[in-house]
From TrEMBL:
SMART domains, sorted: PH (SM00233)
SUPFAM superfamilies xrefs: PH domain-like, PX domain
Record-linked InterPro entries: PH-like_dom_sf, PH_domain, PX_dom, PX_dom_sf
Gene name as annotated: Pld1
Domain PH: 75-184
Organism name: Lophotis ruficrista
UniProt name for this protein: PLD1 Phospholipase
Gene3D superfamilies, per database record: Phox-like domain (3.30.1520.10), Pleckstrin-homology domain (PH domain)/Phosphotyrosine-binding domain (PTB) (2.30.29.30)
GO molecular function annotations of the record: phosphatidylinositol binding
Region (Disordered): 1-30
Length: 257
């Protein structure tokens, strides 16, 4: 990092900004607004330096990732590092042989909340590991009794129960409230059942009714926008998943082709 700092291009900011050295306990209440402004200016100057702006510690502190501001993925919800428990997939007829903790593994992942789905990525590579869709069974629980985990957070949908471990009960409450408020504000259409039992509302004035798939004809197949296929080509078009991979999008398109 020292070598990179010494090789900064000329014209880029080089000097680290500084914060006032006065202790917070000695600051009068009428000066709080100016202290907030000083902190804003400090962070702004830091973010103008590419080396520090792209540093993983800075991105973690601010709560952003490479997916935060992609317009086609919808509005930005809360993000952050979490500890995820393995398992939780709801596969009919398949259960873990033994409910002990020895069956579980904990992995550090970066959780991203969007309007109609949640996903988590591997922090080191940024690879998307799993996408959990918002549907009519979407629900969030916290507490050791519900999750069998101290400071646990459980997120359910029709296909999975995702168990997360937080640093404290307050941290778990922060995640629960942030996810619940964001999804109910931006993804409320996915929380109820719609026409023909679909999980998505009818979209007017569109050429293709996303994500409706026409399977009754041998000539035409309507499919979702390509940007979503790049995100997750293994999306299930019929839920809950009760027939293996039969209704997975890539399998449907292969079968129709």
């Amino acid at each position: 990092h020292t070598v990179r700092r010494q090789s900064i291009k000329r014209g880029e900011p080089r000097q680290m900004p500084s914060l006032p050295h006065t202790a917070e306990s000695t600051v009068r209440e009428e000066h709080f607004s100016s202290r907030r402004k000083q902190l804003e200016d400090y962070l702004t100057k830091i973010l103008k330096m590419p080396m520090y702006r792209n540093y993983h510690g800075t991105m973690e502190f601010i709560g952003v990732s490479q997916l935060s501001f992609i317009h086609d993925l919808g509005p930005k919800g809360i993000e952050g590092l979490i500890m995820k428990r393995s398992g939780g997939h709801r596969i009919p007829g398949l259960n873990c042989c033994g409910q002990g903790r020895m069956c579980y593994r904990w992995s550090k992942r970066w959780l991203v909340v969007k309007d109609s789905f949640l996903l988590y990525m591997k922090p080191d590579s940024g690879a998307i590991a799993f996408v959990l869709l918002v549907d009519k069974e979407f629900n969030i629980k916290i507490g050791q009794k519900e999750t069998e985990t101290k400071y646990g957070l459980q997120i359910d949908n029709l296909s999975r129960s995702l168990i997360l471990k937080c640093n404290s009960y307050r941290h778990a409450q922060w995640w629960r409230q942030g996810i619940d408020e964001f999804v109910r504000k931006h993804g409320k259409d996915f929380l109820t059942e719609h026409r023909f039992g679909s999980y998505a509302a009818v979209q007017e004035n569109t050429l293709a009714k996303w994500p409706v798939l026409c399977l009754q004809t041998t000539y035409t197949v309507f499919f979702p926008p390509l940007y979503f296929l790049r995100l997750s080509p293994e999306i299930f078009m019929k839920r809950p998943v009760v027939e293996g991979n039969r209704w997975r999008l890539d399998c449907i398109l292969k079968r129709k082709a």
